[in-house]
Amino acid sequence: AVEHVYGELYACLSDPELPFLRLKILELLYHVQSRQTVLEENKEYLPGNVVSRIKHVREHLIENPERRIGLRELAKEHGLSLTQLKDGFRQIYGQSPYAYLRDYKMHLAAQLLRDTDRKVSEIAAELGYQNPSKFSEAFQAVIGQNPRAYRK
Predict the structure, then answer these.
(1) What pLDDT, on a 0 to 100 scale, did the predictor assign at position 37?
(2) Is the pTM of this model over 0.90?
(3) Angle at CA 138, nearest 5°, toward 4 and 56?
C-alpha cells in the first residue's frame, strides 16, 4: 500500500497539484501510524536471555539454509517454549521464523543469480529446494520476478 502511494506521488511530480500532494502525504501518514500502532500493541517485554536465545535461533536457521529443522526441535534445543520462540521471533524480526528464512534464502539466491552463472536448478538445490518450480514460486513471492527474469 505504501509503495502504491509513493508510485502515485512520483508519477505526479512533473505537474504537482497541492491538494493531491496533501492527500497522498496524509495517506502515507495513515499507513505509518497504523503500522506503528500494530507494533506497539504487540510489543511485550522480552528478557535479555530470551532475546539472545532467539537471536541464536536465527543464526542457527541461516547457518545451513538448505536444512529444514522443526520449530519444536529448535525451541527445545535453545531452552525456549514454542510460543516464546514464535512470538519472540516475530517481535524481534517482524515475521515468523520460516518466513524470515524464506526471505533470507531468496535474497541469497538473488545474489547468486547476479554474481554467478550457475543454473537456477543448482541454486535451488543448494538452498534446499528439490523442486525448482517451488523455488521459482518462492522467489517470485519474495523478489517479485521469477529467477530467469531477475537474472536478465
Answers:
(1) 45
(2) no
(3) 100
Please state, for a pLDDT cut of 70, what percent of the chain lies above it.
Answer: 93
Q: Pick the closest to residue 61 from 47, 50, 75 (CA basis).
A: 75
Three-state helix/strand/coil letters over 66-109: CCCCCHHHHHHHCCCCHHHHHHHHHHHHCCCHHHHHHHHHHHHH
**Proportion of the chain in helix, strand, coil states, percent, rounded to 5:** 75, 0, 25
Q: How far apart are CA 33 and CA 121, in angstroms?
A: 42
CA distance 139 to 106: 6
Distances from the Cα of 144 to the Cα of 9, 61, 65, 141, angstroms: 21, 23, 21, 6
